[in-house]
Design a protein that fits this description.
The protein has 87 residues and is an alpha+beta fold. It contains 4 helices and 3 strands.
Length: 87
């Protein structure tokens, strides 16, 4: 699942795996490995990828029906949401 999210973010930004990798000081094979889910990026890496692709990380707390940003970092479910303000 996270692999598809990473790929969709990258493609929506118009970046190749090589271009995204260069911007993050990673190889294109690392980006490819994440997208194919052969390896899993840690949370810090996911945040870096999201930031480069102009996405925010949003946490959903279904029990309390609230959304929080990455700065609040205490919720269970992580979703990527396009940040319209960065365009």
């Amino acid at each position: 699942m996270i692999g598809n999210i990473i790929k969709n973010m990258r493609v929506s930004k118009g970046l190749s795996q090589k271009e995204l990798g260069e911007q993050l000081n990673m190889s294109d094979t690392t980006i490819s490995s994440y997208e194919r889910e052969n390896s899993q990026p840690d949370f810090k890496t996911i945040v870096k990828i999201a930031n480069k692709c102009d996405y925010d990380i949003v946490f959903i707390d279904r029990k309390r029906n609230i959304k929080m940003t990455v700065d609040d970092m205490s919720k269970e479910d992580v979703f990527m949401k396009k940040n319209k303000n960065r365009q």
